[in-house]
Structure formats: C-alpha cells, structure tokens
Amino acid sequence: MEFPADLVHAGANVEYKRPVLSVLKIITTTLVQMSNIVSIDLLAAATNPLYFQQLVTTNASNPTTIELLAYNNTFATDVLGSNATARQLYNLPWQAFHEMGTYNKPTNSIYVTSNWNGSSDNPINVTVIDLGNNYSISSTGYADLAEANGGTNWYPPGFQAGNGTYPPRLLFCDEGDFYNYSKLVSVDPVTGESEVVVSSFLGRNFSSVNDVRQHPVTGDIWFTDAQYGFFQNFRPVPTIPNQVYRFSPTTGEIQVVADGFDQSNGLEFSPDLKILYVTDTGAQHFSPNQSRPATIYAFDIIEEKTLANRRTFAYADNGFPDGIHTDLDGNVWAGCGDGLHVWNPEGILLGKIWVGVTSNNFAFLPGAVMVFSNAQLWIVEGIKAVGREICRDFGVCQDGQTY
Ligand SMILES: *[C@@H]1O[C@H](CO)[C@@H](O)[C@H](O)[C@H]1NC(C)=O
Ligand SMILES: *[C@@H]1O[C@H](CO)[C@@H](O)[C@H](O)[C@H]1NC(C)=O
Ligand SMILES: *[C@@H]1O[C@H](CO)[C@@H](O)[C@H](O)[C@H]1NC(C)=O
Ligand SMILES: *[C@@H]1O[C@H](CO)[C@@H](O)[C@H](O)[C@H]1NC(C)=O
Ligand SMILES: *[C@@H]1O[C@H](CO)[C@@H](O)[C@H](O)[C@H]1NC(C)=O
Ligand SMILES: *[C@@H]1O[C@H](CO)[C@@H](O)[C@H](O)[C@H]1NC(C)=O
Ligand SMILES: *[C@@H]1O[C@H](CO)[C@@H](O)[C@H](O)[C@H]1NC(C)=O
Ligand SMILES: *[C@@H]1O[C@H](CO)[C@@H](O)[C@H](O)[C@H]1NC(C)=O
Ligand SMILES: *[C@@H]1O[C@H](CO)[C@@H](O)[C@H](O)[C@H]1NC(C)=O
Ligand SMILES: CC(=O)N[C@H]1CO[C@H](CO)[C@@H](O)[C@@H]1O
C-alpha cells in the first residue's frame, strides 16, 4: 500500500506497512571500553578555539570510545564519582537506540525507540533491553503504535503506589504517518495490549508529538509537539504551532502551557517539581542549521498546572539538546551532538559523557546511565547521580523520598 502522491512532498519515498507485534531478533554481543575522567581547562579553551579538537582524538565516524569530560570539578567528585566506568554495549548496523528509554519493572527491561529508517516499509521499532539477561536486546512493535518517539512510564488514574496488581504502563509518543493520527499511546508491555490516550487538541491534529512526562503528584501528562514527521517525509504539512500541552487523563482537560518554540522537543521536571525544562531542537529541520536554537528553556510551574517566567537555561555547544532528564541534585542532563551534557541548576556546564556522535536520549538506572547514540548503546556504571524517576520506576528510593 502506498501513500497517495499528493500527500507526499518532493523527495519522499514512503510506503505504508502495518506495524508488527513480534520479536524480531535477539542479540547479546558486548564491546567493552573503560574510561577515566578528563579535566577540561576552561581558561585554555577560552583562548584556543582548537582546544577541544586537540583534546578528543577519537575517530568519531567509527566510534568505539567514550570519554568522561569534567568542565567543573564537581562532575568528577559529585556527579559521576570516582567509581564511574564507561563502556560500549552495542554498535549495530541499524539505529536501534534513539529515544524514550523507559524502565518497566514487571519485565525488568528498558524500552527504547529506534530511529526512522527512511521508509514506512521498515517502521520504527521498539528495542527492548533486558536488564536481567546481560543487556540482551530484541525488537518489537505494538498494534496502535505507528511511528514511536519519546515516552515515559504512565500510572493511569486509580493507580495506587505499591499496588503490584496494576503496574504502570508505557506511554509512547506516536508521531503518526500519512494515515494515522499523531497521538499518545499506552502499552502494557507484558501483554502487548495498546490503547490510544489522546489523539488531538480538541479536534485539531498534532504535528508529531515528541516527548512526554507524567507529573508524579497530579498524574497529569505533559507533552511536546514538533514537526519531525513532516521533516522526515512521513507526516503532512503541520497545521498547528509547536507547543507544550498539559492533559488530564482523569477529566480529558487539555491546555496549551507554552509556545514560541522553533521545535519543542524534550521536557522534564526539576526534582522538586517547581521547574519545567523544555528543549528546542530548531537547529534540525530538513537539514541542520546551527544558527537556529539548540537551547533549553526553563519555566516556573504555577500551582502544578501552568507555566510562567520563561528563561534561557542553557545552549548546547554541539548539536542540539534533545532528550532531557534531571537528577536528585537538580542537575539537568540532555542528549546532544557529541554525547550527554550535564548542567547544574544555574545552567553551568559541569561535564559531558562524550561519545563523539549524536546521542538523542538516555536512561538513568540505579547507579548507572545508558546513552542512546542510535547505532550505538553505551553505559556508564558506578555513578553517584540518581535520576529523578529512579524511585518511582525502579522502587529504589532515598530516605523520605515520596515520588
Ligand atoms: C555478557 O555478555 C558478554 C558479551 O557477550 C560476555 O562476555 C559476558 O560473559 C556476559 N555476561 C554474563 C553474565 O552472561
Ligand atoms: C575513521 O574511521 C573511518 C571508518 O572506519 C575510516 O574510513 C577513516 O579512515 C578513519 N579516519 C581516521 C583519521 O582514522
Ligand atoms: C566504589 O565501589 C565500591 C564497590 O562497589 C564500593 O564499596 C565503594 O563504596 C564505592 N565508592 C564510592 C566512592 O562510591
Ligand atoms: C535502514 O536499516 C538498514 C538495516 O536494517 C540499514 O542497512 C540502513 O542503513 C538503514 N538506513 C537508515 C537511513 O537508517
Ligand atoms: C527493526 O529491527 C530490525 C532487527 O531487529 C532491523 O533489521 C530493522 O532495521 C529495524 N528497523 C528500524 C526502523 O529500526
Ligand atoms: C490495584 O489497583 C486496581 C486498579 O485501580 C484495583 O482494581 C485493585 O483493587 C487495586 N488492588 C489493591 C490491592 O489495592
Ligand atoms: C487529521 O489526521 C487524520 C488522520 O491522519 C486525517 O484523516 C485528517 O484528514 C487530518 N485532519 C486535518 C484537518 O488535517
Ligand atoms: C539558517 O537559519 C537562519 C535563521 O533561520 C537563516 O537566516 C539562514 O538563511 C539559514 N541558513 C541556511 C544555509 O539555510
Ligand atoms: C562548579 O559546580 C558547582 C556545583 O554545581 C558550583 O557550585 C560552582 O559554582 C561551579 N564552579 C564554577 C567555577 O562554575
Ligand atoms: C498503528 C496504526 O494505527 N496503524 C493504522 C494506520 O493507518 C492504516 C490505514 O488506515 C491502518 O490500516 C493501520 O492500522
């Protein structure tokens, strides 16, 4: 089945194929690379534009090395700690590790979405990383999910913390295609059952919903919309601005809480739930343009429902900040053009987990962080930083932590 020609703009070569619900392949190869923490001399860098090129000698077109770069001493002492070790888990012939990175406790697995391969003959997969089986991976798909991107855990209305009979579901951003709405889709990863949660703004189509978080106190779903399905030739011309939405799954109430972005993309709460961070990946449309935004904005969250006091939090020196998470110290981590960047709550760059290639997203595990660099998967183990959602997702909580 082909998309009608009038839906497809010049250059596109897209055909429709129904997503499959099946495990495609299981792989268990592991490459190991250890790494030490390298201190950056910021004063030397300030007057030598070639400083970083001379520092990092890895051949980035064939990446096998991961470097831990401290731009501030606390990156080594407090964020990673002296025990941190880094290694590559996979370097595959396809881009299995792109977005999401959500842990599901019943399956003890991390769910990652693969990158768009250029044809709906080969729809975006969900890559399942089994933490109970040496990080072995398999690829799958779900009935209601056309082209998945970001995601999170979702505790549906009525969920009681610790109620093991009703585990959280995975919540996927589905970018949609020429036939299917862009929407949020909930999946039970044990049964494979899927369900549409929201597929329009009061009847208006989304462009390509990109990433999503659930407010752990109100249960509201906060998500972003961007235009990547259009840029990648599998969605029609956008008919709505790029915005951040708040949706109540209990009442259906939906509200635009922020606009004015080039491409609103990743979003994340501060650990005290007082701030929302939103990444703008405007530097990438049909092609890259580094004079457009590669920026993280911060907003104050007012009464758990609306946003105020938009400000520029950080600009990434390499690529653009895409997926974003916070740790319990309030540091802000984002996947960028050369790996993960970590800023303190004042927006000062503390360090990088450098892999030399675009790393769109990542996942915190207890004591570790996994980095998704599309064809490559990396892990840094033995870290001190604790992801904001480790307590909720893994049940590994700090004293007194309630969400
Ligand atoms: C995990 O996989 C790697 C690479 O295949 C292998 O060297 C290692 O022994 C495995 N570990 C376990 C516990 O199976
Ligand atoms: C980098 O790796 C690519 C791909 O393996 C290779 O073609 C190229 O020669 C390498 N460049 C250098 C400077 O090693
Ligand atoms: C480093 O790891 C060892 C072994 O797991 C542990 O005993 C020690 O407390 C850790 N040190 C730090 C500074 O985290
Ligand atoms: C699509 O996937 C195939 C293998 O599954 C790979 O050879 C090809 O390079 C991929 N293309 C893109 C654009 O990712
Ligand atoms: C889906 O996974 C299979 C292998 O499991 C791979 O060959 C294919 O290229 C993947 N497609 C995408 C779009 O990631
Ligand atoms: C768990 O939650 C489900 C759904 O709300 C409910 O039906 C069930 O009674 C709850 N079980 C316990 C033990 O609270
Ligand atoms: C909204 O999306 C649906 C599903 O792709 C499509 O059938 C419909 O024509 C779209 N509506 C508009 C106004 O673009
Ligand atoms: C890059 O983006 C800027 C700002 O939108 C625009 O003025 C410029 O023409 C673009 N450059 C190219 C090469 O497209
Ligand atoms: C280094 O980071 C620490 C912790 O975030 C911060 O207090 C300090 O001001 C930073 N130092 C510099 C020189 O930016
Ligand atoms: C995942 C999904 O909703 N797929 C649907 C996309 O649209 C085609 C054509 O209408 C349907 O056949 C698929 O089921």
UniProtKB/TrEMBL annotation:
Residue stretches making up the SMP-30/Gluconolactonase/LRE-like region domain: 169-358
Domain of life: Eukaryota
Regions crossing the membrane: none
Pfam families in the record: SGL
Protein name: SMP-30/Gluconolactonase/LRE-like region domain-containing protein
Gene source species: Lophiotrema nucula
